[in-house]
């Protein structure tokens, strides 16, 4: 073959600076692109052999990645299909886009530079982000083919001549530029290969590694070991998600989870195997981790692959937000990607895939609930946060989750939303027909209020999670007709669920006014508003509460849901004085000094029951208690 020189068919001198500029932020992807190309070439020769179009020896199909720090080169080699000189000219020299004018026009208007790159087949040319010269040595599988050598220095000029390769396949040699010498490092390359090539379907070899193997026994019959050098194979070519669910056991799924997350200290609760080929192709495995009550959405736990090539761990466009709490992998060749294969492009398949995943997750949870409710209840503390978050953010998920979402009460009993409505709808209906769900966000701190509710025969739910203030609002809308949720310490119990029967206040108007004045003087706090109310004599003499609406808005604000206004408002408490309690009568009849002491003591006792009495105020309360004995 004679040497031939030519110009790459792109009709502009600006293409390489554009490639470098727009892919520069993710330069490491050059290795993924070139290794993926080598894998494709290996897969093609395998298919040709299966079709009977190649009768030679396949040999051990493997992609080699090597580097030479002194020569400043990185070489990616395969023994795949190879290319002739004509094929190199066809596939390498002709960049697939519609012309310089259209390209530059798109370049000017694009809001996101990656959109431009994404429309054109520039994967191979990512090599020029890190190399100032690239060579190709290739020999086609075709009988009688001549080896070809191609070289380009990053301009639009290339040179092609007879090559030196003597076996089928291709070498791509990158002459690394000064700015990219970080890649001439064993650990850096290993890191990139581990990230992108961990599950490629053809073996990826990166030099060798040391390991130990058995070497007979010593004189005492104990095994001896020796250190040997073996091929450093980067990848598992047949990961669990590529297999049929029927061929996998629980241990296979757990083993794959440990392979994905080697530093995880806990095993997943259960998993979902995704496997669909119409109307789109999608495989994968999603794992449910133990979440407890920690609301930390880790957005890098689900990894997106395309034909076993790692693409990204930013999957928010495919996976609904609540599913970001899951771990695992999704693999689909039908998701549109740009050339860097790190960004999704708008496409109807993306929405279809998102809907499919939502349905599969809901179906799996419903199946577990129906077939093993006891086991489901045992897992509730670990998956409840996930399910509630899904119900708040995804309407289609919520429609199904209403049947298996559990409400837990202080007796540690579990009810579905419908079951709980039936449990309390008669006993906890107020005079207006509202069904009041009482709940606690801290059973220890709100114990006295819970005790008052139980004394009335009422049930109290436990809603102590980070998003339960939002979930309380959801239950009011979807939990049943005329449902209201009130935290058990939002008011005195008779005001939380007002019945037809009315308790009469034993104090006169003048006595009520006097009690109010005494308590206002004893408390002397602007954030406390005193009310004298008619309650049962068995109720506490004083209760300190905060309005349900305002408290819930402030709780919601803490989760960052656009309610910062409420979070900035100061706390404002209601001090309910039980006008029918014997202590109040005693306060009225005491001297001004003793009345104030008793009022202060009763108020501090109420603060203590809420966990609001601390520091020096608590010390003073203890001393005063001793004095009053």
Automatic annotation (TrEMBL):
Keyword Phosphoprotein: no
Domain Histidine kinase/HSP90-like ATPase: from-to ranges: 26-180
Signal peptide (residue range): none
Keywords: ATP-binding, Chaperone, Nucleotide-binding
Key word Manganese present: no
SMART domains in UniProt: HATPase_c
UniProt record similarity statement: Belongs to the heat shock protein 90 family.
Record-linked PANTHER family: HEAT SHOCK PROTEIN 90 FAMILY MEMBER
Protein name: Molecular chaperone HtpG
Species the sequence originates in: Sphingobacterium thermophilum
């Amino acid at each position: 073959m004679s040497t031939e020189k030519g110009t790459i068919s792109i009709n502009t001198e600006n293409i390489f600076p554009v490639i470098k500029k727009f892919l520069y932020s993710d330069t490491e992807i050059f290795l993924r692109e070139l290794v993926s190309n080598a894998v494709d070439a290996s897969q093609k020769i395998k298919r040709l052999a299966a079709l009977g179009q190649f009768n030679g020896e396949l040999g051990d199909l493997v992609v080699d990645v090597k580097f030479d720090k002194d020569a400043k080169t990185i070489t990616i080699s395969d023994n795949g299909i190879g290319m002739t000189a004509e094929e190199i000219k066809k596939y390498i020299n002709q960049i697939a886009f519609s012309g310089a004018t259209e390209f530059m026009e798109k370049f000017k208007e694009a809001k996101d530079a990656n959109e431009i790159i994404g429309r054109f087949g520039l994967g191979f040319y990512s090599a020029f982000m890190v190399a100032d010269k690239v060579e190709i040595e290739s020999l086609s599988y075709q009988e009688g083919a001549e080896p070809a050598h191609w070289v380009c220095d990053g301009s639009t000029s290339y040179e092609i001549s007879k090559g030196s390769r003597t076996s089928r396949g291709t070498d791509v040699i990158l002459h690394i530029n000064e700015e990219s010498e970080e890649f001439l490092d064993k650990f850096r390359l290993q890191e990139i290969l581990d990230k992108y090539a961990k599950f490629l379907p053809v073996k990826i070899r990166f030099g060798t590694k040391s390991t130990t193997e058995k070497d007979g026994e010593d004189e005492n019959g104990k095994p001896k070991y020796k250190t040997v050098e073996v091929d450093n194979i980067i990848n598992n070519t047949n990961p669990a998600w590529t297999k049929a669910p029927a061929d996998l056991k629980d241990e296979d799924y757990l083993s794959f989870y440990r392979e994905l997350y080697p530093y995880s200290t806990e095993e997943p609760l259960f998993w979902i195997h995704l496997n669909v080929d119409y109307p789109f192709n999608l495989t994968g495995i999603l794992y449910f981790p133990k979440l407890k009550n920690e609301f930390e959405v880790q957005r890098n736990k689900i990894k997106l692959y395309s034909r076993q090539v790692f693409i990204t761990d930013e999957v928010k466009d495919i996976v609904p937000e609540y599913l970001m709490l899951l771990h695992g992998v999704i693999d689909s060749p039908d998701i549109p990607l740009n050339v860097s294969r790190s960004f999704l492009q708008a496409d109807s398949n993306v929405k279809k895939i998102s809907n499919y995943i939502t349905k599969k997750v809901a179906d799996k949870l419903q199946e577990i609930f129906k077939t093993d409710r006891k086991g489901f209840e045992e897992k509730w503390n670990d998956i409840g946060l996930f399910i509630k978050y899904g119900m708040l953010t995804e309407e289609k998920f919520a429609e199904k989750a209403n049947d298996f979402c559990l409400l837990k009460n202080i007796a540690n009993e579990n009810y579905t939303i419908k079951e709980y409505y039936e449990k309390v709808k008669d006993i906890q209906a107020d005079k207006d027909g509202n069904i009041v769900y009482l709940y606690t966000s801290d059973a220890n701190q709100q114990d006295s209020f819970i005790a008052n509710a139980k004394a009335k025969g009422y049930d109290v739910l436990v809603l102590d999670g980070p998003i339960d203030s939002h979930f309380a609002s959801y239950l009011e809308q979807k939990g049943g007709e005329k449902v209201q949720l009130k935290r058990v310490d939002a008011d005195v119990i008779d005001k939380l669920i007002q019945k037809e029967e009315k308790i009469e206040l034993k104090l006169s108007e003048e006595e009520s006014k006097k009690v109010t004045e005494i308590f206002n003087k004893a408390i002397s706090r602007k954030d406390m508003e005193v009310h004298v109310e008619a309650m049962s004599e068995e109720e506490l003499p004083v209760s300190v509460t905060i309005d349900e609406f305002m408290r819930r808005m402030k709780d919601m604000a803490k989760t960052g849901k656009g309610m910062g206004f409420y979070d900035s408002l100061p706390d404002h408490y209601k001090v309910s004085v039980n006008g029918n309690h014997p202590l109040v009568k005693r306060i009225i009849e005491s001297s001004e000094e003793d009345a104030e002491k008793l009022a202060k003591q009763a108020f501090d006792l109420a603060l203590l029951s809420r966990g609001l009495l601390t520091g020096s105020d608590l010390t003073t309360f203890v001393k005063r208690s001793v004095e009053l004995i």
